[in-house]
């Protein structure tokens, strides 16, 4: 990099600390307007919206559940079951941004059936799609050319005896069918975009998103207002880093006293492999190569019992990584080229791809308050995930069921201090459940990897913690928020990744094509920026534009802005697969993910 270019980038960084008013005129000329979404550019101040009818249709129900994943569906089902047992009739409504139930679920998972056993004791007779019991477990440490087996002891978190390899999207779709049979109202393709509040500040419900807005933020002739759903209690089951859950946490200060949540990004592909290589029920996990010792992560490979020889392969990278040159997507592609891994895929066909952020913070990072006036958080919205198990679906289901029990108690007679009903017993129910005891046992596993020896020290320390079963008299802290972990690019070794061979490893855009992602092109980008200058002035200047690499869908791209060599950020929002990584890893927390028009996004459809 030339000295002149370095000086130019330094000047842009220094400019971040000058008063906004002083540099607003020059910035407006230098940087094109990127964000046109109404959450950043209020419509009340836009002349184009003055004559538009903004009235919403309103419906009132007893319980609104935001998100139709395993947690949301389990909450809806349990609420209707309990009401029926008490001879009561209640309205339960689930709003789901995917066009069909299960459509946004990234499939290929190992599920502990403990919560399903409780929700539907006769689920096998009912035809629940759990067809592949785990038959064999393998856990290994990968070197660049070899594999070192790691023993799996019975009862340890990595032990999958009694679990099932599933297509999670299929299971969620089945849960949706059971919910509808019980009378739950499900609205797929309706994304909740706004939290509504009573005059006393308690949550009143949610509003679904408006449609018919042009890319420049103006109303189209087809503009239609979303609807309001008012409820006695609202349950947020959006999954990891839900945008409304994030707002609720800030509004009610739910994270006061908690450690910052830390995350990983999980990338996944579905393959049809050669029949002779297929072993239904085989579960494999690895750590080590290709990641360096200071980057947390590993792989999984699950063989499903399907009509065709199908496997789900994936790779998880902790988003507290330090090197801005790292690309989680390319690390995943490189992993598949390992000499002891690639053989599984040779001669096979990749049929699907996707990515999702996952919670890794554990007990320390749970909100100090799980409830608020008018509702509660469940599942991954709250952070319930067991990191060494790499499982959270059974926690999502159980927390949804416990929330439903508490909500029924509140709306059936508990005295309330606010207009919105608070499920007061929910936190205690969680603390008395296996969710809390499980997370307490493994609370020190993830922070163990922040040590001078990295992975090697982490294996020893986490092994001791698992052996102790959570009885150690200390609780370790995380290193800090993931967005603060990056080092300047000048201090890190640039990573040169091999070119894809288009047989085992692939490029980003051909992978995105397999997600079925679909966004209306003429709409405001749902990846909003609080400040359009920060990407170039800060992220590109200090970190060489890390959003180009941490995004697993090619959404962010730096392109020439003028003939003078200045750059600008281009947001390819139509590529977004709703993983939320940018919302988490952006160094200045300048990127905010909001729901696109109509929900949009990938169409995994159970994959």
UniProtKB/TrEMBL annotation:
GO terms for cellular component: mitochondrial inner membrane. The keyword Signal does not apply. Residues 263-358 form the ETF-QO/FixC ubiquinone-binding domain. Its EC number is 1.5.5.1. Residues 502-605 form the ETF-QO/FixX C-terminal domain. Coiled coil: none annotated. Keywords: 4Fe-4S, Electron transport, FAD, Flavoprotein, Iron, Iron-sulfur, Metal-binding, Oxidoreductase, Transport, Ubiquinone. GO terms for molecular function: 4 iron, 4 sulfur cluster binding; electron-transferring-flavoprotein dehydrogenase activity; metal ion binding. Binds 1 [4Fe-4S] cluster. It is an enzyme of class 1 (oxidoreductase). It catalyses: a ubiquinone + reduced [electron-transfer flavoprotein] = a ubiquinol + oxidized [electron-transfer flavoprotein] + H(+). The keyword Transport applies. Its cofactor is [4Fe-4S] cluster; FAD. Accepts electrons from ETF and reduces ubiquinone. This is Electron transfer flavoprotein-ubiquinone oxidoreductase. The lineage of its organism: Eukaryota, Metazoa, Ecdysozoa, Arthropoda, Hexapoda. The gene is 106080798.
């Amino acid at each position: 990099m030339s000295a002149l270019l370095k000086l130019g980038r330094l000047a842009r960084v220094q400019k971040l600390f000058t008063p906004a008013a002083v540099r607003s005129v020059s910035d407006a000329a230098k940087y094109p307007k990127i964000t046109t979404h109404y959450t950043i550019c209020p419509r009340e101040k836009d002349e184009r919206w003055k004559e538009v009818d903004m009235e919403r249709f309103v419906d009132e129900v007893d319980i609104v559940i935001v998100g139709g994943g395993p947690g949301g569906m389990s909450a809806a089902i349990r609420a209707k079951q309990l009401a029926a047992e008490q001879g009561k009739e209640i309205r339960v409504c689930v709003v789901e941004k995917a066009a069909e139930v299960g459509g946004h679920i990234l499939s290929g998972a190992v599920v502990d059936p403990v919560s399903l056993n409780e929700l539907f004791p006769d689920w096998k007779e009912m035809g629940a799609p759990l067809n592949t019991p785990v038959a064999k477990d393998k856990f290994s440490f990968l070197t660049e050319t070899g594999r070192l087996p790691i023993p799996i002891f019975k009862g340890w978190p990595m032990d999958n005896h009694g679990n099932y390899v599933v297509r999670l999207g299929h299971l969620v779709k089945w849960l949706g069918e059971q919910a509808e049979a019980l009378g739950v109202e499900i609205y797929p393709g309706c994304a909740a975009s706004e939290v509504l509040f009573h005059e006393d500040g308690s949550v009143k419900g949610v509003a679904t998103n408006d449609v018919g807005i042009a890319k420049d933020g103006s109303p189209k002739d087809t503009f239609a207002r979303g609807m309001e759903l008012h409820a006695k209690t609202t349950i947020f089951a959006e999954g990891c880093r839900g945008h409304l859950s994030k707002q609720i946490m800030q509004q009610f200060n739910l994270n006061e006293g908690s450690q910052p949540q830390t995350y990983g990004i999980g990338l996944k592909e579905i393959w049809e492999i050669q029949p002779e290589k297929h072993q239904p029920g085989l579960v494999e996990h690895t750590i080590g190569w290709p990641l360096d010792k200071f980057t947390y992560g590993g792989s999984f490979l699950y063989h499903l019992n399907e009509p065709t020889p199908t496997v789900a392969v994936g790779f998880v990278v902790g988003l507290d990584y330090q090197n801005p040159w790292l690309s989680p997507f390319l690390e995943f592609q490189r992993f598949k080229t390992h000499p002891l891994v690639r053989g599984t895929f040779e001669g096979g066909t990749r049929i699907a791809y996707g990515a999702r952020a996952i919670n890794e913070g554990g007990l320390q990072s749970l909100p100090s308050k799980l409830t608020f006036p008018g509702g509660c958080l469940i599942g991954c919205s709250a952070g319930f995930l067991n990191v060494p198990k790499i499982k959270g679906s059974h926690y999502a289901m159980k927390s949804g069921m416990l929330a439903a029990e508490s909500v029924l108690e509140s709306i059936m007679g508990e005295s309330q201090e606010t207009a919105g009903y608070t499920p007061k017993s929910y936190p205690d129910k969680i603390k008395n459940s296996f969710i809390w005891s499980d997370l307490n046992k493994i609370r020190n596993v993830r922070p163990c990897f922040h040590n001078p020896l990295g992975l090697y020290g982490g294996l020893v320390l986490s092994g001791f913690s698992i052996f102790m079963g959570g009885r150690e008299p200390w609780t370790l802290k995380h290193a800090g928020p993931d967005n603060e972990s990056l080092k300047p690019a000048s201090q890190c070794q640039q990573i040169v990744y091999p070119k894809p061979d288009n047989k085992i490893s692939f490029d980003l855009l051909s992978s995105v094509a397999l997600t079925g992602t679909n966004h209306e092109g003429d709409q405001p980008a749902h990846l909003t920026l609080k400040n359009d200058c920060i990407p170039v002035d800060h992220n590109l200047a200090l970190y060489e534009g890390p959003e180009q690499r941490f995004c697993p869908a090619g959404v962010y791209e730096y392109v020439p802005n003028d003939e003078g060599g200045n750059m600008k950020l281009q947001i390819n929002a139509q590529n977004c697969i709703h993983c939320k990584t940018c919302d988490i890893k952006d160094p200045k927390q300048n990127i905010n993910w909001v729901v696109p028009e109509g929900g949009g996004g990938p169409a995994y459809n159970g994959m």
